[in-house]
C-alpha cells in the first residue's frame, strides 16, 4: 500500500485497502459527483481494522452520499446571496470571506461547500478576479477582518499567499487576517518557514482557525505544525463540525477540545452540520447536539468550551444554539441551571 501520495480515485481507495472491491462501483459514482482526496498523513491515521473508524468516516466516500433529501441545498449557508464580486462573501458588516481557491488537500464527505470545491469546482481566482476582490476590500472601510477560506487557502504556495498578504498590507482598515484550514492536520509538513513568513507578510494580526473533528487528528506532527505557527506569533482557534459517527459522544468531544487546548488552540466554533447534499448520514438532531454541548460544561475546563453554532440556511449568518441555562420566571426572577442540571432561582430568595 502506497501512502506517500494522495488518494484521489475509487481505484486508489481500493488499492489502499480503504474500500472493499465490492464497493468500487458505488464509490465511483460518488467520486463522479463529489471530489475525493485523502492525504498521506490522513491515510496513515485510518484504522483499517475498524469498520466504524471516525477518521475514515470523514474522508472515505460512502454510497450514502448518493441519497439526497429535499431540505438539502447546493449552497447551504447562502454564500451566493452575499457575494458582491467573485471570491468575496460579505455577510456581516465588519468582515468578509476571501475565497481565493476552491481546492483542498483532503475532501471532507460532509463539506458544506462540496458543490464548489474540488477539481470540478470554482478553481482559483484569476488575476482579474483577485484584483476586483482586493479593490472591494479596499473600498469598504467597514471591513476590519478578512477571512481566507475556500477551499483551503494554505494549499496556495507561499509565494501566492505572500502576494495576497502584501496586497492587503496597505489597506489600513483591515486589522485582522484569518485563515481557515485543515493543513496543520492533513499536511503538517507544509507548515514550514516559507509558509509562516507568507502568512505574516501583511503585517496584520494573523489568526489561523484549524478544522479538526476527532482527537486522533491532533497527532504529534499536527501539534508540532501548530506550535510552529503559534511560536511565530500566530493565534490559533479551532473549528469542528458535530458529526454522527465521528464525535457525537461526550468523551470524544471532551478529548477533542482538550487536545486543542493542550496544543494552545482555543476552541472556537462547534458547527451543527449544514444541509449539504448527500450528508444526512452525518446529521444529528439539535437536541442531541445541545445535550452533548451541555455535557462539556460539566466535565471540562472553561478553556475547552466552543460555541455551538448553526449557520442559518439562506445566508442569514450564524446563531448560537446551545440550550439556554437561564429562563425568566417573572417578577425579576430567573431559573438558572448549573452544570449538573440542577435549577436555582436568581436572585436567591431571602
Ligand atoms: S477542508 Fe473545508 S472546504 Fe475543504 S472539503 Fe473539508 S470542509 Fe470542505
UniProtKB/TrEMBL annotation:
GO molecular function, one term: isomerase activity
Pfam family, one: Radical_SAM
Residues at which [4Fe-4S] cluster binds: 104, 108, 111
Domain Radical SAM core: 90-313
N6-(pyridoxal phosphate)lysine: modified positions: 318
PROSITE patterns xref list: RADICAL_SAM
Keywords: 4Fe-4S, Iron, Iron-sulfur, Isomerase, Metal-binding, Pyridoxal phosphate, S-adenosyl-L-methionine
InterPro entries: Aldolase_TIM, Lys_aminomutase-rel, Lys_aminomutase/Glu_NH3_mut, rSAM, rSAM_sf
SUPFAM superfamilies: Radical SAM enzymes
Necessary cofactors: [4Fe-4S] cluster; pyridoxal 5'-phosphate
Stored NCBIfam families: AblA_like_2 (TIGR03822), KamA family radical SAM protein (TIGR00238)
Similarity-based family: Belongs to the radical SAM superfamily. KamA family.
Protein name, as recorded: Lysine-2,3-aminomutase-like protein
Amino acid at each position: 500500500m502506497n501512502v506517500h501520495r494522495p488518494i484521489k480515485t475509487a481505484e486508489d481507495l481500493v488499492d489502499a485497502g480503504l474500500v472493499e472491491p465490492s464497493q468500487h462501483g458505488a464509490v465511483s459514482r460518488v467520486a463522479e459527483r463529489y471530489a475525493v482526496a485523502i492525504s498521506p498523513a490522513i491515510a496513515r491515521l485510518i484504522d483499517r481494522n475498524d469498520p466504524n473508524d471516525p477518521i475514515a468516516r470523514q474522508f472515505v466516500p460512502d454510497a450514502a452520499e448518493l441519497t439526497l433529501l429535499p431540505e438539502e441545498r447546493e449552497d447551504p449557508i447562502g454564500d451566493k446571496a452575499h457575494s458582491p464580486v467573485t471570491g468575496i462573501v460579505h455577510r456581516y458588516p465588519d468582515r468578509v470571506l476571501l475565497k481565493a481557491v476552491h481546492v483542498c488537500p483532503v475532501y471532507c464527505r460532509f463539506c458544506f461547500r462540496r458543490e464548489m470545491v474540488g477539481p470540478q469546482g470554482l478553481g482559483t481566482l484569476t488575476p482579474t478576479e483577485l484584483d476586483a476582490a482586493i479593490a472591494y476590500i479596499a473600498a469598504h472601510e467597514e471591513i476590519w477582518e478578512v477571512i481566507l477560506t475556500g477551499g483551503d487557502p494554505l494549499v496556495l504556495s507561499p509565494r501566492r499567499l505572500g502576494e495576497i498578504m502584501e496586497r492587503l498590507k496597505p489597506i489600513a482598515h483591515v486589522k485582522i487576517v484569518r485563515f481557515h484550514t485543515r493543513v496543520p492536520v492533513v499536511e503538517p509538513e507544509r507548515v514550514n518557514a516559507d509558509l509562516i513568513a507568507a502568512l505574516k507578510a501583511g503585517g496584520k494580526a494573523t489568526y489561523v482557525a484549524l478544522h479538526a473533528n476527532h482527537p486522533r487528528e491532533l497527532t504529534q506532527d499536527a501539534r508540532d505544525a501548530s506550535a510552529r505557527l503559534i511560536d511565530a506569533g500566530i493565534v490559533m482557534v479551532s473549528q469542528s463540525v458535530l458529526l454522527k459517527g465521528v464525535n457525537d459522544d461526550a468523551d470524544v468531544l471532551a478529548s477533542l477540545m482538550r487536545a486543542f487546548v493542550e496544543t494552545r488552540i482555543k476552541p472556537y466554533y462547534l458547527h451543527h452540520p449544514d444541509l449539504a447534499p448527500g450528508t444526512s448520514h452525518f446529521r444529528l438532531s439539535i437536541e442531541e447536539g445541545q445535550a452533548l454541548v451541555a455535557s462539556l460544561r460539566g466535565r471540562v475546563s472553561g478553556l475547552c468550551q466552543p460555541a455551538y453554532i448553526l449557520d442559518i440556511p439562506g445566508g442569514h449568518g450564524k446563531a448560537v444554539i446551545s440550550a439556554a441555562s437561564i429562563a425568566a420566571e417573572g417578577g425579576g426572577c430567573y431559573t438558572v441551571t448549573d452544570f449538573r442540571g440542577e435549577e436555582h432561582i436568581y436572585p436567591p430568595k431571602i
